[in-house]
Design brief:
The chain has about 1200 residues and is an alpha/beta fold. The chain is about 30% helix and about 20% strand. This is GST N-terminal domain-containing protein.
Length: about 1200
């Protein structure tokens, strides 16, 4: 019997005198813990691009095991050894969610076999009397059932245990499969009549039409033989597919390839035509013996793994890239561990399956067979169960599979609060300690602050009911820390935090941890206990002051470096107040060190080589960047909470950039003052409805960020413009007074003289552009990366990397096609390209832009870059959205079919007009890389001035940037010909230089010194000469493969950097991009986990020691990781890997300059390598004693076929 229970708390009526608070009766409003997303799979399943999804649109990852029922006696194997229900439950406990259940076609085309022969008769006819007796003992219910009814019982029991089923038509007549000489190997063979086959499929589909856990039908296992050519496949496979779909439109229709289902490559250039699409799935098989015999022991493991993965991708994996689901429906190896080929193959396969995030079905469940090729009780060494059908054959093998059982992409099941009427059934037995929600159990994290997940089987966590109320649900982490389930108020998700209020402290409020969160619908009651505030005194160091703290805090204050005043000795300067405000509001003790940034002391440059502040020391590590610091403070000192809800975090965010625009404007009528007033008025209206602070009654992080900016606005505009906030904006003025009058603000504000000095106009000073290219010109005409990270985070990351400028690319069609620019939304653009995952990513990370028209989204990007102090160059990259560039492009040069000079000039003028008053847009690049067979100077001189004049007339403030010909490598035609325009002080030229811009292979064919000097001479001749003639020149594109594997690129970059430094160039590197939404050609992927294929575990942080190190853990419990091959830094939970300098030592984690750059070497790219200070090449490795990550000499980098690199293979996902 199942029971439902509701986790609730009834909160008494609270009264508050404050006018913004409300009295709330919570006894009639109940919230309930449910999980995100609702993974009680909602049938039927269908497909969306390459993913299998449920009825609610949530991804369903199939992690299946093959259960044979196709051999003589046509009964599911193992029923003579264990009860059917025990086997089903064992499947669930091993982490599978699905069974690929095989069956012979004869079961549907031979009524005698299906309906007249009983299980007992079938076994006895084969003289399997012991098995018949075993079934009578363990499964008496099915003994006298007809064969098909017994098959139905198996499917039914699997469903009762929450297991999905794929019905796989394995062969025609019961028996073992498969060889080339089988009489049913392919269409038209003696025992494979396509007409009878299609009818049998239709009949099976009909009989399971209303059985919801039957989610798919595989049409035929391993087509093969001498006739397995594609023509017959295309002739008959659609007929089988249509027969299934017509009989049962709810099931997935799964199609296998030829050559034992290893080959679907014939679909590369030929379309598969059926009347349906959202149920179509393909399947592929891969065993160690699927390729060259003995290849895995004849060749180096790295080389053969890379080679065979290439073949597998060519033969079937390509379908994923084309938007079709692909199931790896058979794979496996001898689980006794004695097959060297099989062991190496499995490590390679697991890495590939994880990278592709495949659905899969391992061969096989089978412990042994009733009868196989004449042998009774033949043991299946590939089976996950042993011959007893009770025990796991090899737990290490099962652990390896666990690494790919859960999705790496798609929906991760977590918990949240929901209305009771919308929540799923839950059960909790205090003795068992397992919280079950919709057949999945709670998995607790090992680190405080992380979300609570759901899983199955052995991964379930045991919860205890502690405290006098028994309403804290608690657990212990691996290092003994006691944590409790808690609620994250930002999104009502369930997280794990240190247990509250287990002492006798009467002031403590445990509400968020009492199985239910009353403050999600009531008013937060947490407040600072002022009785505990103390002022820290003591002998201050020179240049150091102390701030507030609480006696509950650690006695040791945080060290913080901030800017010193430029007007008064030993006083605080401007531009660091946000961090100090956060410390004051949280009552964190700190030692403040004032740094003279004009004459930076040597001790400061050692800890901040870039000379930037603020800088805070956490756990012996210096951390830079206000965002990172304030987030760390929130995590380390959670009380009082200052987190702002995401939907309010951007309130008032445009005020600062419009303030700067007005302050720097020279023309009273240019609209900059009105732009500022508009933003202030919007903010005033918001405060009227939601104040007094942005998040209501209590100050939060967004106020601490905006307050100092408003303070600067008040002082700077008052001094330089004699301007003040109008009295009509009364709510804004009250807000400023509330913030400025706080004790924390008064203590941390800079003197007015310093603010005035900081904003004093610096006329005539050089501005050096150090830019990064951010592509927004490809389909879908949206800035890349917004599906991966919040826009503001990307902007801040650009700043943190030292760039001051972005060259933002755009297609001309954005200005000449109003439908694209203003009528098509971001969501529509992505969905029209079947980029549904990216649309979902934008909804998650940048919901504000999802439903904006394309151009408005582009404006948001420019605006946010400005808010983060970044200048922008708008680069017209091409005409229509797509990848660029080749000689054959239709928009390569003036007069080409898609490059009308008149339309181009109008588009440039329109873009310049639209960004006329946007002060951080400092330049416009007229066209990227003019090229082609017609790129001669005459056309350039004819049309380029017209584009330049169009921009300057529309927006006289921006720089007008002109590119050359030959892919912008050549401006030499300006040596003896004058470029005539009506302006001069806005004219800039640009030049590109890549390693491939010159003689092919030159950098490896010639001496580096010689080729560098030669090519620098060419670059100077083609463009650099302009500098000597007094014209600005931007090196607006350059770059190389940042993985470090391109010898030509590495040499070229060293040469380029030397030349750029010598010329002191302005520049823009290609590119910011981690990967592309959609690009013709390869993109670099930023992934989320690092899998160790040999163990099936993932890399995570080991917190047990004083210094965080790395270890392996179940992938579902691992912390998020990111690795961009260009950057070479492996980040785990916001900390970077620090490699040791001696082999055998553990790998640590840290921040900042100590992070080590890793390379992906060997043919597989699965060795993560680095060099020690003395040049020794080491690789990440696993210490099998404790699963810790260590550094050891790299294995198997030679052609030695006997070497096994498994322990050093790490797949970046």
């Amino acid at each position: 019997m199942r029971f439902k229970f509701k986790i609730i708390i009834i909160k008494n009526k609270e009264t508050h005198k404050n006018k913004m608070a409300r009295s709330i009766y919570l006894c009639t409003f109940l919230l309930f813990i449910t999980w995100i997303p609702i993974l009680s799979t909602s049938f039927p399943l269908s497909t969306k691009t390459r993913w299998i999804i449920d009825e609610k649109g949530q991804r369903v990852k199939l992690a299946c095991v093959n259960w044979p029922a196709h051999l003589q006696p046509a009964v599911a194997e193992g029923l003579s050894k264990q009860p059917l229900d025990s086997i089903s439950k064992k499947i669930v406990s091993m982490g599978f969610n699905c069974v690929r259940l095989t069956w012979p076609l004869d079961l549907m085309t031979n009524d005698t076999l299906a309906l007249k022969i009983t299980v007992k008769q079938s076994f006895e006819s084969l003289k399997l009397f012991d098995d018949a007796l075993g079934i009578q003992t363990h499964n008496p219910k099915i003994l006298n059932l007809p064969i098909f009814n017994a098959f139905q019982e198996v499917v039914s029991n699997l469903g009762q245990n929450g297991l999905m089923v794929i019905l796989d038509n394995h062969l025609t007549y019961p028996g073992w499969c498969c060889s080339d000489n089988d009489l049913d190997a392919f269409f038209g063979y003696p025992n494979f009549d396509p007409v009878i086959w299609a009818k049998g499929l239709g009949k099976m589909a009909t009989l399971f039409r209303n059985v919801t856990n039957v989610i798919g039908m595989s049409l035929r296992n391993e087509p093969r033989g001498t006739r397995d050519y594609p023509d017959l496949w295309f002739r008959f496979m659609p007929k089988g597919a249509e027969a299934v779909h017509a009989a049962n439109p709810e099931v997935l229709v799964i199609l296998s390839g030829i050559d034992f289902d290893t080959n679907l490559s014939f679909l590369r250039d030929r379309f598969f035509n059926v009347s349906f699409t959202d149920k179509l799935v393909f399947e592929q098989h891969w065993y160690s013996f699927s390729h060259e015999g003995g290849a895995w022991v004849k060749h180096n493991s790295n080389d053969i793994c890379a080679k065979i993965i290439g073949e597998v991708n060519h033969n079937g994996g390509f379908l994923l890239d084309r938007g079709f689901p692909l199931i790896l429906s058979e794979f496996g190896t001898d689980e006794r561990g004695v097959d060297v080929s099989g062991n190496r193959y499995m490590n390679c396969l697991v890495a590939w399956a994880a990278e592709k995030d495949l659905d899969w079905a391992v061969w096989a469940l089978t412990g042994d067979y009733y009868l196989r090729t004449g042998t009774k009780h033949m043991v299946e060494t590939y089976g996950v169960l042993d011959a007893t059908w009770k025990n796991v054959r090899n737990s290490t093998y099962l652990q390896k599979l666990s690494g790919i059982q859960h999705p790496f992409r798609g929906n991760v099941p977590t918990l949240r609060l929901e209305l009771c009427t919308k929540s799923e059934p839950s059960t909790f037995n205090p003795k068992e300690g397992i919280l079950w929600i919709s057949k999945m159990c709670v998995e607790t994290p090992d680190v405080a602050g992380q979300k609570v997940k759901l899983g199955v089987g052995s991964k379930c966590s045991k919860l205890g009911q502690i405290s006098a109320t028994k309403m804290h649900l608690s657990f212990k982490t691996s290092n003994g820390l006691l944590l409790c389930l808690d609620v994250d108020e930002r999104d009502n998700s369930i997280v794990a935090n240190p247990c509250k209020c287990l002492t006798k402290d009467a002031s403590c409020d445990p509400a968020s941890q009492l199985r239910f969160q009353p403050s999600t619908v009531g008013v937060l009651s947490a407040s600072v206990n002022r009785a505990w505030l103390t002022r820290r005194y003591g002998t201050n160091e020179p240049g150091s002051t102390r701030g507030f703290g609480t006696s509950a805090m650690a006695a040791s204050p945080l060290e913080i470096c901030v800017k010193a005043s430029v007007t008064t000795p030993n006083k605080l300067g401007p531009f660091c107040q946000r961090v100090l405000l956060t410390m004051e509001e949280k009552h964190v003790p700190y030692d403040m060190k004032l740094v003279d940034l004009i004459n930076k002391p040597e001790w400061f440059l050692k800890i901040s080589p870039d000379g930037k502040v603020p800088l805070v020391k956490f756990n012996e590590k210096w951390v830079l960047d206000s965002d990172v610091i304030t987030q760390s403070l929130e995590e380390k000192y959670p009380e009082p909470p200052l987190t702002t809800p995401p939907e309010k975090a951007s309130v008032g965010s445009k005020i600062f950039s419009t303030f700067i625009g007005f302050l720097k404007s020279k023309d009273q009528g240019d609209g900059t003052e009105q732009a500022l007033l508009n933003e202030l008025s919007t903010f005033n209206d918001y405060l009227k409805e939601n104040g007094p602070f942005i998040n209501g009654e209590k100050i939060s992080a967004v106020d601490l960020s905006l307050g100092p900016k408003l303070h600067h606005m008040k002082i700077a505009l008052g001094h330089y413009k004699d301007w003040s906030v109008p009295d009509s904006l009364s709510f804004l003025k009250s807000y400023m007074e509330n913030v400025f009058s706080r004790e924390s603000f008064a203590k941390t504000q800079a003197q007015a003289e310093d603010v005035i000095a900081g904003w004093r106009p610096k006329k005539g000073q050089r501005v050096k552009l150090a830019c990064v290219n951010w592509p927004a010109h490809l389909q879908p005409a949206v800035a890349e990366g917004l599906s991966k990270q919040p826009l503001d985070s990307i902007s801040k990351k650009i700043v943190s990397m030292g760039f001051n400028c972005v060259r933002l690319t755009w297609p001309l069609d954005l200005m000449t096609n109003d439908t694209l620019a203003l009528k098509i939304t971001v969501k529509q653009s992505f969905e029209s390209l079947n980029l549904f995952d990216d649309a979902l990513g934008i909804q998650t990370h940048n919901p504000k832009i999802l439903n904006l028209p394309i151009f408005n989204a582009f404006q948001e990007v420019v605006s946010n870059l400005g808010q983060n102090g970044l200048m922008v160059i708008l680069d017209n990259h091409l005409t229509y959205p797509g990848w660029c560039c080749s000689d054959n492009d239709l928009d390569a040069f003036f007069g080409y079919p898609n490059f009308d000079p008149v339309i181009w000039a109008k588009g440039l003028g329109k873009m310049a007009t639209l960004f006329r008053n946007v002060t951080n847009v400092i330049g416009m690049s007229l066209r990227n890389e003019p090229r082609g067979t017609r790129d001669y100077p005459d056309l350039w001189f004819r049309f380029m001035p017209k584009g330049a004049e169009a921009v300057h007339a529309a927006n006289p403030e921006v720089l007008v940037i002109l590119s050359g010909i030959d892919f912008d490598t050549n401006l030499s035609f300006l040596r003896d010909r004058f470029f005539n325009v009506s302006f001069t002080d806005k004219l800039v030229f640009e030049q590109h230089w890549y390693s491939f811009s010159h003689e092919g292979g030159a950098w490896v064919k010639h001496n580096s010194n010689d080729i560098c000097a030669k090519i620098i001479g060419e670059v100077n001749h083609n463009g650099g000469f302009l500098l000597d003639r007094g014209f600005p020149l931007i090196l607006s594109e350059f770059g190389t493969d940042e993985r470090g594997v391109d010898v030509s690129g590495n040499r070229y970059m060293n040469c380029l950097v030397a030349w750029a430094a010598e010329k002191d160039l302005d520049w823009a590197v290609w590119a910011l991009t981690g990967d592309y939404y959609l690009r013709i050609g390869p993109g670099l992927q930023e992934k989320k986990l690092v899998l160790h294929p040999h163990t099936g575990l993932c890399v995570t942080t080991n917190h047990s020691g004083n210094v965080p190190t790395l270890r392996l853990e179940l992938c579902t419990k691992s912390e998020p990781s990111t690795f961009n091959p260009k950057e070479g830094i492996l980040w785990i939970n916001k900390m970077g890997v620090e490699t040791p300098d001696v082999a055998g030592q553990k790998v640590k984690l840290g921040v900042g300059s100590k992070c080590s750059k890793l390379g992906q070497i060997s043919a597989t790219k699965m060795h993560l390598s680095f060099k020690t200070s003395n040049g020794l090449l080491l690789c990440l490795d696993v210490d099998e004693r404790d699963n810790s990550i260590v550094a050891n000499p790299c294995k198997c980098l030679t052609k030695d076929a006997s070497c096994d690199p498994a322990s050093q293979w790490f797949k970046v996902l």
